[in-house]
Design goal:
disordered N terminus; 5-stranded antiparallel sheet; single chain; mainly beta
Length: about 210
C-alpha cells in the first residue's frame, strides 16, 4: 500500500528557520550527534519529533546511502524520471515510494530498506490517526510526537521472499548494520513541477 500524493500545504510566509526538529533518545537520555553520527546501544530508542512549521516529515531509514548521499545543494523532492523502475533507482522522496506503516506505531518498529521505500510521518488535527506513537499533542502551534523503535522491519529481506517473517521483523538487539537516516519536509502549490525542499536533516546511527 502507498501513501497518496498528499504533499501538505505549508504557510510560505513562515520566516527562514527550522520547520521540524528530530532528536534521538535512549534510556530517557538525549543522545547527541557527533560528526553526523549518533551512537546507540543495541536496545530500544525513540525518535523525538517536533513539527514546528510543517505537518509532515518524510523519513528514510536505510541500510544504504541512496538518500543519505544526495547532494545537500539539490532538492531531494525533485524527480524527472517517469518509469516505475527508474523512480526507485533514481528518485528519492516521491509519494509513490512511500510505504504504509502501522497507525500509532503499534509494532514499535521502523521500516528499513535500501532505495525503494521511505515513510511519511504526518499530523492533521482533522484526521484521528497518525504513524507516530499514540499520544502526539499540540502546544503553542507545535506538534510533539515520538516514534518508539523496539524492532526492525527489514524491507529488503521481506521483498526477497526467501526469509521467514522472524528474519525480517526482529528486535533491535539483533541489528548488525548501521542505519543511514534522512528526514525532510516540503512545500507544494498547484502549478509547481516538484515540491520545494524546506529542510533536510541526516545522520548515521551506529550501534555498539
Amino acid at each position: 500500500m502507498l501513501w497518496s500524493c498528499r504533499s501538505a500545504m505549508v504557510n510560505k510566509e513562515s520566516s527562514a528557520g527550522e520547520y521540524f526538529q528530530v532528536e534521538v533518545v535512549q534510556d530517557g537520555k538525549l543522545i547527541k550527534e557527533k560528526n553526523n553520527i549518533i551512537e546507540l546501544e543495541k536496545k530500544p530508542f525513540k525518535y523525538r519529533l517536533r513539527f514546528i512549521k510543517t505537518d509532515h516529515i518524510y523519513v528514510s531509514n536505510s541500510w544504504g546511502t541512496h538518500y543519505y548521499d544526495y547532494p545537500d545543494t539539490e532538492n531531494i523532492f525533485e524527480c524527472h524520471e517517469e518509469s516505475a523502475e527508474g523512480i526507485c533507482d533514481v528518485c528519492r522522496f516521491v509519494s509513490v515510494k512511500t510505504g504504509t506503516e502501522d497507525r500509532f506505531n503499534v509494532g514499535k518498529d521502523i521500516y528499513v530498506g535500501n532505495r525503494i521505500y521511505h515513510g511519511v510521518w504526518f499530523y492533521d488535527e482533522e484526521i484521528d490517526w497518525y504513524r507516530m506513537d499514540k499520544g502526539a499533542f499540540v502546544k503553542d502551534g507545535v506538534v510533539y510526537a515520538t516514534v518508539t523503535v523496539e524492532n526492525i522491519y527489514d524491507l529488503d529481506k521481506r521483498d526477497a521472499r526467501s526469509y521467514e517473517e522472524s528474519e525480517y521483523v526482529y528486535p533491535i538487539e539483533k541489528i548488525e548494520e548501521d542505519i543511514y537516516v534522512v528526514f525532510a519536509t516540503s512545500h507544494y502549490e498547484r502549478g509547481m513541477e516538484h515540491p520545494e525542499e524546506l529542510q533536510k536533516e541526516k545522520f548515521v546511527i551506529k550501534f555498539k
